[in-house]
């Protein structure tokens, strides 16, 4: 896969850095995909910088974070690159692909599907953890020992799962209003049945609460979770109370905040600094 | 006009303040309108706060600034309310209203139209300077001696015009990439012919460069204008070079920045602080 496989769609100067959107053919997903990134001024000046992967939620694409989270100011200050993939394969003409907001397009759940039709395209975990980093390396040499992952809602689920399953690849993690226990909520159960089939045992491989039960929590770096108390999806779908109680899992309930990017923009600086502190310490002790 | 005329469409906590969107029947424009605002925490706590009016550019509505400018952090820090009107009347079923992006819907140019059809609805200057402040006063008591106005592109033109024509109402002004000299650019000439008719003498009442020629520049507070050098509309439509050279008119050319909200978000903190300094000084000497 050469650099020529990437097409630059947009490029905008921001905070002395640059916002870019790319399109490319994805071998993993067998469709065309897009992603956005922000290169801080330090990267444009040739420095190797830390990278954060942002995973968006249901109905989003690669643009939501980069246009609405207000993160570039702090990313430029800290010298951190961010990469924002789309939330699913697109335009694969699968049965039911575009029928609802919580399954198919815009709802890839960052997993490898095993059901008929979907297994040929829906492999968002492999895309994010393997294909995308190769593309990012073409764009900008960066510190592979300083890589964090974070996300929102379905993307918070994705960030926790990919972090817990790829501990050598990701060094820090955080989440806004993640779907914590998808095997026990309607969004998760519907998606897992559609992508993984009726055997619920197979679903646990993509449930953060189940994965954390199999993890020595003392070995984890601090995990930051922000959750608004006025989030309309908290009771039915998000279930932050199901996360284990442990000193390394810092669940911050924020009074009055909802599920929107207004919530994310308010606390994104805290999350960037959370990653920055861990990644800086990791760089000092590679 | 009672408070019952306002309908709250959305409300979101942000930076300990609140983003709100309202709908209402506009007597001035004879149609339904929407606007957005941000109430900083100081306002929610009952303090009278300064108010900034943000005027958006072509194709925008009341949501662009509040979702993409990343201004709430600084507005909350300074304790300033922002109010964002829509850019034109909507849904009036006028001939040509929805045929192009630079005339009619989304392109009201903050003026009072005199041509057939449009004169019945297109009075965005009266709406912004008279009707909207009454609605804002219902939402939040504020300091009427601490009111600023700013905007982007067509809205930068609007901010400069409304400030220069209503010096007792607005105490500070700034603009991002304003259409400085609309009587001399295609966007302006097309809009002015459509709204004001062929008599070009009438157009000068809505041209910031013409208005500044009639103004004692020594009497003005400092005016801040930010203009990206990579703005694709600079040469044909914006013409910052036509603004008079004077110590009170600070035109900042920003290398590599374009016309997008990425540009606005980078420099919005500078603009908020520009207004804050002037409005603070005014409050000290009412």
Give a verbal description of the structure.
- 2 copies of one chain form a homodimer.
- By secondary structure, chain A is an alpha/beta fold.
- Chain A has one domain: Rossmann fold (3-Layer(aba) Sandwich), CATH 3.40.50.
- The first copy, chain A, contains 9 helices and 9 strands.
- Chain A has a 9-stranded mixed beta sheet, sandwiched between helices.
- In chain A, strand 6 (142-152), helix 5 (154-165) and strand 7 form a beta-alpha-beta unit.
- The radius of gyration of chain A is 18 Å and the shape is globular.
- The A-B interface holds A 12-16, 19, 67-68, 70, 72-73, 228, 230, 256-258, 260-263, 265-266, 269 and B 12-16, 19, 67-68, 70, 72-73, 228, 230, 256-258, 260-263, 265-266, 269.
- Chains A, B: Serine hydrolase involved in the detoxification of formaldehyde.
Sum this structure up briefly:
Chain A contains nine helices and nine strands. With 286 residues, chain A is of the alpha/beta class.
Name the features:
Rossmann fold, 286 residues, nine-stranded mixed β-sheet, homodimer, alpha/beta
Biggest interface, CB < 8 A: A-B, 23 and 23 residues
Oligomeric state, counting identical vs distinct chains = homodimer
Number of strands of chain A: 9
Approximately how much helix is present in the residues of chain A?
A: 25-40%
Classification by helices and strands of chain A? alpha/beta
Number of domains of chain A: 1
> Which word captures the global form of chain A?
globular
CATH architecture verdict of chain A: 3-Layer(aba) Sandwich
In the CATH hierarchy, what is the class of chain A?
A: Alpha Beta
Number of helices of chain A: 9
Along the chain, the helix and strand elements of chain A come as: EEEHEHHEHEHEHHEHEH
């Amino acid at each position: 896969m050469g650099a020529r496989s990437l097409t630059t769609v947009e490029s905008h100067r921001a905070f002395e850095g640059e916002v870019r959107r790319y399109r490319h053919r994805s071998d993993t997903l067998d469709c065309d995909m897009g992603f956005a990134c922000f290169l801080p001024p330090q990267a444009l000046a040739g420095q190797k910088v830390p990278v954060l992967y942002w995973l968006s939620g249901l109905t989003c694409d690669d643009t939501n974070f980069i246009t609405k989270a207000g993160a570039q100011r702090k990313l430029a200050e800290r010298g951190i690159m961010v990469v924002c993939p789309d939330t699913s394969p697109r335009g694969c003409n699968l049965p039911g692909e575009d029928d609802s907001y919580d399954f198919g397009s815009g709802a890839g759940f960052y997993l490898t599907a095993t059901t008929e039709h979907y297994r040929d395209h829906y492999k968002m975990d492999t895309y994010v953890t393997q294909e995308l980093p190769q593309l990012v390396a073409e764009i900008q040499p960066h510190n592979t020992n300083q890589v964090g992952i974070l996300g929102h809602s379905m993307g918070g689920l994705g960030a926790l799962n990919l972090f817990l399953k790829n501990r050598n690849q990701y060094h820090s993690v955080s989440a806004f209003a993640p779907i914590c226990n998808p095997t026990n909520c309607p969004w998760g159960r519907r998606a897992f049945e559609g992508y993984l089939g009726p055997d619920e045992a197979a679903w646990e491989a993509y449930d953060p609460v189940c994965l954390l039960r199999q993890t020595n929590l003392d070995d984890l770096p601090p995990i930051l979770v922000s959750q608004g108390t006025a989030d309309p999806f908290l009771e039915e779908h998000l279930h932050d109370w199901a996360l284990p109680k442990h000193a390394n899992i810092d669940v911050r309930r924020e009074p009055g905040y909802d599920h929107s990017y207004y919530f994310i923009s308010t606390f994104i600086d805290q999350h960037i600094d959370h990653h920055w502190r861990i990644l800086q310490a990791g760089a000092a002790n590679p």
